Amino acid sequence: ACWNCHVPTADRGAFCSHCNVIQPPEPRAKPNYFEVLSLRPEYEIDLDTLRANYRKMAKKIHPDRFPREQEREYSHARSALLNEARTVLEDDVERARHLLAMEGIESEEDAERVVFEDFEFLSEVLELREEIDNTDSSNVEKLTSLLKKAQARLNEEASRVKDAFRSDRLEEAKDITQRMVYLHKIVNVLKGKL
User: Fold this and answer.
1) pLDDT at 29
2) The whole model's pTM is what?
3) Paired strand residues for 15
């Protein structure tokens, strides 16, 4: 029910459909970020649409629009949720992890503790990490080359995970996502060195 007019509401939108007053976010452990940004829950999303939906909602729920303290409090909570949704869904790896968590395949926290048994891939990652560690930070050309190599591998896995999600092969998507997590970390390490 709406906190303002007390009319029962069926939807979980940001505003009451009866009195149009901002509502608090649903007290869920893990929100559906696709729902927050009015997107269909799928791996392949249009980032321009995501950003347009984000801007539209950000304007509607901005705290400066609300005179009452309770409304501003809900607006701040909704804004934080909106920012979190954008951050997760703009990132290929985090979006994949969120989709898997929504399907009950793994929680986003569990993904960090999974025993990964793709030894060929782990060997490839270790060799790449060793090459990074043995490259002097002033060797921008070599670091740039390594970044391109890691980014290309990440893009390759992102293409594979798209296909897995599209074909509803969620266990395969989980394995690919785990590889993406490793590669994403390497890309970030390299970006930090450049």
Assistant:
1) 64
2) 0.85
3) 22
